[in-house]
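Possible regression after last week's pipeline update?

I re-ran a chain I had predicted before the update to compare outputs. Posting the input and the new output here so someone can diff against the archived version. Not blocking, just want to make sure nothing changed silently.
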Amino acid sequence: MKLRKIMFSVLGALAVTASFTACSDDDEWNPLDEGSKVYVAQTRAFVLNEGAYQKNNAGITYFDWVADTTFNYDLFMAQNGKQLGDTGQDIIEEDGNIYVTVYGSNYITKLNSFGVELATVKLPEELGEVRYMVEEDGYLYVTCYGGYVAKVQTSDLKYVASVKVGDNPEYIIEEDGVIYCTNSGWGKDNRVAAISTSSFSAPTFYNVMGNPDHIIEVNDRIFVQGYGDAYDYPWGELDVKTGKFTQIGNASTWAAYDDVLYLVNSVTDWSTYTTTNYFSTYNTKTNQLTEGNFLKNMPSELATTSIFSMSVNPYNGHLYLMTSDFVNNGMIYHFDEKGNFVKKLESTGVGPRKIVFFK
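New output (post-update):
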């Protein structure tokens, strides 16, 4: 019955999008020729909905990022006739393909640019559950909760090798031929591991804050964010030449575009369950930290709703803030490159974690 309802929803979406096909100026745009079972817009954004842990309700939905039109069905289910699995963790786009890690189900999947599955892989069990990934020179580098970074070919998802890095590694980046990942240790570690992509052997380590989580490269500089020993979400810069970490501020989530970090610190008073969001920006060229809300005409509820994640459209700098209560469908708040509020969208899934964009 559930699948039947989804297919009716898909058919409805087909009817709506048929009008777009008929009046399109681009006669060559036909995703159905690429194995897609449904029509998807050329300017499409895919949302990875994490789902609730052990509920097997992770999914991928999509919207037209020019028209801000959302389509109310699970695109992954529509394209592949099955559910994505338990706990969607990370999604990236590379060379026209999509790669997704699914933490609870513990596998990696490769999709084409319309969400059609091309290959899957389960890594050796001793590596632990898959978390986050980065691509470099035809390989995925994937953090695994057993304490490893795994190397996987993008072409066929063949497992190549792994390196032990520390307990419970999380986010991962590549910079100048080096892989950097945070070791959270579930609160018992405070290090970033660095691995040469050429040797892919034993890492070197840098001390940062306690329980590090996010890591990002902006303007050839590396920034790390974590929970901190006091759970106050410190973030700052890691200078890999000197090995020194310098705290700059506090933020629970962030996104970057055009050399600027956009930061939000969602602070909840658990005695009253009241959340307050503190906004700031950091210019990596001028080293200027500007505190204050960079958003304009922000919906009032966003000031007191915990920001789960943020994504940036690389084609125009538009910012998307996502919220979730991990029970109901999450919400996506769209702001343009100047911070003006554009539209509020439903993610059509629980826990919107990340968005990737195509044009």
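Follow-up from reviewer: compared with the archived run. The two ends are 34 Å apart (CA to CA). Marking as no regression found.
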